[in-house]
Amino acid sequence: MSVSNRSRIIVLAVIATLLTSLSQSQQIDLPNPAGSNGRTAASSSAAPAVRDASVLRGVDFITDGSVEAGTSQNPFWAQSSTNFDYVICTVEACVQEGTTNPTVGPRTGTNWIWIGGAYSESASRPNEVGTISQPVRLTGGTVELHFYLWIGEHDPQGTDNLQLLLDDEEIFATLETNSAFHDDYTLVTIDLSSYADGTERILKFTGTDLQPTNTNFNIDDISILVNGVTVTPTEPPAATATPTPLPGEELLDNPGFERGDEEGKPVLDPWTLVKPSSDKIKCNKEDKIVAYKGDCAFRFKGVPGENSKLRQSPNLSGVNFAEGDIINVSLYLNAPGIPNIRAKVRIKYSDGTDKGKLNIDLDSTSDYEVFAGSYELTSGAVSSIRLSIDNKTISGKIYVDNASVKVAQEVLATNTPDNTNTPAATNTPGTPAATNTPGATDTPGASDTPGVTNTPTASETPGAATETPTETPAAETETPTETPGATLTPSATPTP
Q1: Which residues in 447-483 are b (16+ Cβ under 10 Å) and which e?
Q2: Which residues neighbour 16 within 8 Å (Cβ) at sequence distance 6 or greater?
Q3: I need a labelling partner for 173 at 20 to 30 A (CA). Which of 73, 218, 259, 417 fits?
Q4: What is the residue range of 260's domain?
Q5: Same domain for 226 and 256?
Q6: pLDDT for 439-455, tens place per residue?
Q7: Which one of 172, 202, 237 terminates a domain?
Q8: Is residue 3 a part of any domain in this protein?
Q9: Pairing, β 78-81 against β 88-89
Q10: Structure confidence at residue 42 (pLDDT)
Q11: Is the pTM of this model over 0.90?
Q12: pLDDT below 50 — which residues of the chain?
């Protein structure tokens, strides 16, 4: 088999057994009984919810334009394929194991859209028709669609084609012979201003790969920008809010993953990883910003069976604790898709007091958002504190940055940006509820919290005034108005 021809790895054990009996030099012909390839069709999953651009204030109308939220189960894109069921790929999922393919691959990240690649000398394989679509509602002034296209393999006399439709109207089309896209990914720009009337439409790529030759259409980094905004889909907008720092003394070491070795390579120390997959520190590049602040962040990659834990137990030497002190915890999370991740703090005492627990459930985000919670010490005999960020998300990258565990005499200040994706932390009975509810402006006194007796508010605590943060939160310029998780709720049948 020519390595330029496409093959897919089948996850069902019986098919995997069949594939292992084939030579790596052979073209793999997937069985296709009753239109199936032995893999669950991604197009049968929940339809992506409509992305209403009117609330995005002119940044980007597309959700997950770099398709990094998953391959076969991407929650934002409906997709279909006559040979492979899905068209969002990673090299590991779509290129035959043990081979390389220089005609396919992502422009950025690890995922991209691969339409075509179904050549086979066997007459049993049908012509390939691949589609991928997302509902959009365009509003505003000047609206432009941007995407990158690379035709990595083609027949010099071929007629395979790629179309882009808005509803049923063709807004872009090219044949495989278009040399403008043969060498590398090339930007395509289309003016959609005439469609910006608030009507819900389906944006859909569809491509054909006719036998007996092979064509590889590669697509990545799709965005729909309004009013001249030039933010690329691979570089999230810089955060405009400057939240007031959490009160208290920072206990974590290397909280922003900025530490490097003698050669400048990032090191995780003193963080530890339990059951890691391909999780690691990632740093900014010229064409891709991954950190919330500074140059680096920690990335959970997400693979089947994922159960990794990022942990740190800070050095408590020289730290004096007292009953009633507050442990303030926060972290910044960038988690598109459907994350299965949470932060846990466990506090042990040396005097027999029951272990303290604080759980913070983390939610889906469209960019970095802060999640936070507080825990009140029930004894001053603290022997250890451990922060653990536990990830079970099996697909899609998740970034963590600027974690914080502080000891203070007051609970969280109103430092949490006003967004609806920040959940309240879950506390064990007898501890104060977290004060990270979006929009909260008052720190509850002890008399308002069940199970707590006579713990004064920060303003009533002697000396607390000297610990009041001196920075004033900057006004939020990008307050999300979408309901948390709304983009994951199916509202329509996927459009093939």
Answers
A1: eebeebeebebbeeeeebeeeeeeeebeeeeeebebe
A2: 9, 10
A3: 73
A4: 249-467
A5: no
A6: 433 434 433 444 434 44
A7: 237
A8: no
A9: unpaired
A10: 31
A11: no
A12: 1-5, 7-59, 228-245, 413-496
